Amino acid sequence: MVILILAIMLQLADIDKTFKYDCDYNKCKEELEELLPSASSPKEKSEILWRLSRVELMLGEEAKETELKRKHFNAGIAWAEMGIKEDPNNVECYAWHCANVGRECQTHSLIDQAAAVPVMTEDLTIILDKLGETNCSQAWQALSEMYYHHPFKSDKSAVNFARKAATCIPTDELRLSTYIHLADLLKERGWSKEKRASEAASNKKRFNKANQSAIDKYSYFDGSDEILPWCGKTAAEISDKEEADSLIKYAKEKFAQTENPTPIDIKDHNKIQER
């Protein structure tokens, strides 16, 4: 049994490498589907299932036709739901379920897109509040994007959630798109240093008192005294433009220090270079 578990984990590591560096998503899907019957426990099945959900998302992103996109995204939703049934505590299942729901809804009208918000909110609430995975950068960015695009949400919260996402990127990953997303939000908003200092002062008590929900707490992240690594200052000490410029510079420096960037890293870096 132990040997079988180790064999599956080694195979998953190889598939992750193919996903990350070769971007051969069809090969990953084929290998994951072949591996699934070998899983001997709910946790093992869940590990395979969320990866299938992730693969379907990428295949959907690559697809040109709307119906084909929907087919992949809906398959991704189904794989993630199967993974949740196997292991209700697997954060990745909720994360990729949320991502596929978000992408699938974007293939529909604005009215239909609104129907996805409660589903995505539930996934993100489970990750960040119920399971307490407050360092899940992917969840914070999804929350930021949802708050930015939904007409009834707050651009203030969108910025704060994006800022939180950028502070908890895993050390072994670049995720330049997270820095780009936050920089774009800041440039669009354009608050002065004085405006930010005023907002931070009013949100400081809210941030410190909001202990029941991480989502509620970090909607006031600008009231935190946390030093931001890309500028060496708190959110209250600089303007939106200054922070945006610092983010792009920081992202460039991180890329330059990376020995083996992924194709996605290179693509994101090219976007930064074009600015």
What does this entry look like structurally?
With 275 residues, this protein is mainly α. The chain has 2 domains: 23-133, Tetratricopeptide repeat domain (Serine Threonine Protein Phosphatase 5, Tetratricopeptide repeat); 140-275, no CATH class. Helices cover 72% and strands 0% of the residues. The protein has 14 helices and no strands. The longest helix has 21 residues, at 2-22. The protein is globular, with a radius of gyration of 19 Å. The chain starts with a helix and ends with a helix. The relative contact order is 0.07.
Low-pLDDT parts are none
User: What is the percent of helical residues?
Assistant: over 70%
Order of helices and strands: HHHHHHHHHHHHHH
Number of helices: 14
Per-chain topology:
Elements: H1 2-22, H2 25-35, H3 42-62, H4 66-86, H5 91-105, H6 110-114, H7 116-130, H8 137-149, H9 155-167, H10 176-189, H11 193-209, H12 214-218, H13 240-256, H14 263-273
Helix pairs in contact: 1-2, 1-3, 2-3, 3-4, 3-5, 4-5, 5-7, 5-8, 7-8, 8-9, 9-10, 10-13, 13-14
Q: How is this structure best summarized?
A:
This protein is mainly alpha-helical and 275 residues long.
Relevant terms:
275 residues; 72% helix; mainly alpha; single chain; Serine Threonine Protein Phosphatase 5, Tetratricopeptide repeat
